[in-house]
Amino acid sequence: MPHEVLLELKDVRRSYNSGASAVEVLHGINLTVRRGEMVAIIGPSGSGKSTLMNIIGCLDNPSSGSYRVMGQDTLNMQPDELAALRRDFFGFIFQRYHLLGHLCARENVQVPAVYAGVRKSKRDGRAKELLGSLGLAERVEYRPAQLSGGQQQRVSIARALMNGGQIILADEPTGALDTKSGQDVMRTLQELNAQGHTIIIVTHDPRIAACAHRVISIEDGTIKSDTISADVPDPLARAESETAGAGVLAERPVINNQWARSWSSHLDRFKEAFVMAYRAMLSNRMRTMLTMLGIIIGIMAVVSVVALARGASEQIISNIAAMGTNTITVYPGARMGDVRSGRVRSLTARDLVALQGQPFADSVSASVQTSSLIRRGANESNATVQGVSLDLFRVYGLLIKSGRIFSQGELEQMAQVCVIDDNTAKLFFPTEDPIGKTMIVGKVGLRIIGVLAPSDSFIIRGEQPTIFMPYTAVMTRLLNQNYLSSIVLRIKDGFSTPVAESSIKRILIRRHGREDFFLQSSDTIMKSIEEATMTFTLMISAIAVISLVVGGIGVMNIMLVSVTERTREIGIRMAVGARQSDILSQFLIEAVMVCMLGGLLGVLCSYLIGQLIMHFVPTIVLSYSLDSIIAAVLTSSAIGIAFGFMPARSASRLNPIEALSRE
Ligand code: ADP
């Protein structure tokens, strides 16, 4: 009675290249398998059984001839199309079970359905049902290592049935089992056949072959005999009579093709690839950790350097802000360091007066600066002498601790008075009150009228004594010059620095007839600090990036090792229908996860070390910005993609048969 033809091989040949010549292993096989048959392919070792089986299971292509699966010619099919056939029609049972060691029975059974795009809830339910009906209800959460050989083979039968298993290909299914377990497995296969599954068994054992109703004997790559034993009932009749009562084993594919092509299915497969990558990482904790180390160190270095630079610049900027003032200083010359600025003598007290009247000026001070030896009795020291106007103390927010600042009258009279800073007071008057005492500055005697409170303003430089005199007195009595070194102006609240700057320029150009001065504001100082910090950060980051690249190469290395080590796993996944893209994404996700996690740990380590440093060395400030953390994690992920791609692609391009045969 003719039944539907499932598989049809016509003049199939397969040859392998051995050195320069090709050796033909299958010599023109003609074979037709119909639905519901149970076929045993028997022959001595080396006769070509496995080669034939691989072609039937779409794991391999014939060198010539044609092979049709349900009418579809497989000749010019791409690897992914062959994978689709394997997924949808075939179920494989291997001699050595080929289960994935890091997954439990339930998860192993589900693998083909993951690639077929079956919803998690559905495949989970079906996996449990299948395992239950094969007597493994109590073992669903066991890993292969916790199961006996017979139990493992039953798990692999359940896996073969997961997507429907219309055609079950069993390669020496009892080869690794004891007699009793072997008999159980054969009984299960017979039951499955009775429920309508088409079964093809490869064996060298005539007793196993005797369980099938059709025995094909193969020798030296050719079919020697093809006999249908009389006492096996008509497969289709059995199939029809028993399918009605058959349980979950006989169910047809659970694949919903519409859903399998949908976005949520893709997302689901991505999620699965993610879980698989995560599992693989967990099962190799030590190696994963070591792989991450390069990335952790690289990211830690970058994040710490950026935080350090940011901390330093924030500190400087906050120091400038702590001066409490927004100031603009007018200097003679074209720019800082201009060698000709000493010859520019146009900045005068009249400019000061002109600027004082401006609406944006809160206070304006002249400045004539020099350094000089100061003496009192036998005590002497070098000091900075600041010739200033009254307003200077307000411009820089300097406070008087005792005494007073000089008056307008004293300024106009070029009075020989001075205000000293805290350093000078401590140095020259450790025990007595300085007010009213005299000091010799250069050759001029000065009466001290005030002492400043300690301040971190930059106008008082570190430990160096600084004294403040009326600028008129410095100009005439100390320097004998009639021009100013600079004018400093504090901007009134509510006025912007650029507006004030352009007004000052306009006024002074009008007065001098040309631009023989330049302006420096706290804004420009901040900007140049920011620029310097940026340059510094970029430079160090470039060095750190090199360490990241080295880390990335480490990741690539380990991923290549991992692919080699897990070649058999890749083969199994491909046999049950994984696409090349599934394998690619699994390994790529693994690489990205390793790197991303490394990045996050790097950020965390940097933060913890930063906290420690700041605790023990309070002068160092590390400032972590969200931007730099996000950039670090993104960079590490990009490294994962860049360096994980090559190993992942080589994994996805493995030949499934070669991969499967790797131990
Ligand atoms: P069986 O399964 O019957 O033991 P195989 O199909 O495994 O036989 O092998 C048939 C012949 O093909 C053997 O002589 C084997 O050496 C050869 N063969 C199988 N695979 C390859 C291969 N990848 N490259 C070269 N020769 C191979």
Short description:
The protein has 663 residues and is α/β, with parallel strands linked by helices. The chain is 49% helix and 21% strand.
Overall description:
This protein has 663 residues and is of the alpha/beta class. It contains 22 helices and 20 strands. The strands form three sheets. It has a six-stranded mixed sheet with strand order 6-7-8-3-9-10, with helices on both faces. A six-stranded mixed β-barrel has the order 12-13-18-15-17-16. The chain has a four-stranded antiparallel sheet with strand order 2-1-4-5, with helices on one face. A hairpin with a 2-residue loop joins strand 12 and strand 13. Helix 5 (149-161) packs parallel to helix 6 (179-194), helix 11 packs antiparallel against helix 18 (522-565) and helix 18 (522-565) crosses helix 20 (580-616). The longest helix has 44 residues, at 522-565. The model is unreliable at 230-246 (pLDDT under 50). The structure holds adenosine-5'-diphosphate (ADP). Adenosine-5'-diphosphate binds next to strand 1 and helix 1. The site of adenosine-5'-diphosphate has 11 residues, from strand 1 and helix 1.
Keywords:
single chain, alpha/beta, six-stranded mixed β-sheet, six-stranded mixed β-barrel, 22 helices, 49% helix
